[in-house]
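Quick one: histidine kinase from Francisella adeliensis, structure tokens please.
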Amino acid sequence: MAIKKKKEGSILSFLVVSFASFFAVFMLVISIFSFYQIKHQNDALFDYQLKTAAQVIETILKVYPLEEHEDAKHMMIDKISTSFLNIKNYNQSVGFIVYNRKQRKLILKTSNLPVFRKNYDGITSTTGFEWVYTDSDGNQKHWYTYSLKTDNGNFITVFANNAVKDKISRQIILKFAVLLASTYIILIAFIYYILRTALHPLERINRRVGRINRRVGRINPRKNEKLDDDIVPYEIKPLVEQINSLISKFHQTLEREKRFSGDAAHELKTPIAGVKTLVEIALGSDDIDEIKVRLNRIKSSTNRYSHIIDQLLTLTRIQPNEQITFAKKLMINKVLEILIAENAIKAIEKDIEISFHPSEHDIYCYSNDYLLGILFKNLISNAIKYTENGGLVEVYSHLENNEIVVEVKDNGIGVPPENINRIFDRFYRETGTGEEGSGLGLAIVTEIVRLHHGHIVVKNNPDKGITVTVRIPVEHNNIVDEDENLQDNLK
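--- reply ---
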């Protein structure tokens, strides 16, 4: 059974849903807590209003004796009690009574006095807050009362319908809920706007990359297109830099492919035509000796072209690599000794003296044995190749300013000053030397030195010949054990 791969949504949707869910839960908890607090505070305020209303009525009765201001007092007390309770449109649901238990006499009451189940003695039996019940048209109602006893023995009881109390609480809670919901909607809309604005640079990058992608087949390698990282947020800059690095490497790859194709075509087209001519001459000749001569020349040419192809492939392999792989701790003196020994036969054939002047102390390079072998092998073989018979080739190694310095010095034909900077170009060969070659050796050397973050310098000697100096920084990190198979790997 095939497992369906989970489809990834957008970052914007994920963030908005996450924030919306978080604030929904957060506001729900706040709402529940707030509703209980509102109800508790409303109950406390209601108790305070009933108690204060009773005290105000008591004060009025002391200031205005009932016998002197009875008519005015009824109207005044109704107005004060309802306005003090501050419950609009609920005049029939709040009120008070003044009752004397000793005389069992109802002294004063509001016009909306309900019919309580208890008699007045029962209602005014205790001071403080109490719940009482009434029956009106068969409907049972709850009343919340507060009673206090005056100095002359009268009981003042202020009452309010519980429905009023609950309705006020519901109204406050409803207004709070509407405010909370409105705040939530505005907050989510604001978060959406902020996130959309924050992610807008990613959309610009996406469009820019899309335009570059659509022009992949028509990109000019010399026009190194990049993303603009001047206006992107700090957090996105590393991403833009990595994309620009990728684009730059892509352009470099295209450039290398074009150069490789051009170089290969330029270097191989004419020689192949020459080989073809030699083959046609050999086929048209009846002289066995002449045919052998032509075949030997063909063999020599094919060997040279095979060497050129090998050099091109080597150059192509090392150019894309920005980091050296399979790094080992290599002893420079040991590497040079092995390579000098390998080239000793060539030096002997030309009666060339080759000497090695190693550093006093062992120096190590964090490198790759294959690349390091190609580097120094090319320098040593070139020195032997362009040194006349009976000449001298010297190899030096030492450590200077935390750099490994290797010098290859010869007393050969040298290089004209005007061409000293061209010897690193591909397929460049000094004319008039009589030596054959691909012209790629020093180009390969330059690439390997670049991979080591080093540099190479060529200068003519005061008397005769040239000195090639390679400087490679010493790496102290990630060094592993010295390779025991170094000699085999250098071959």
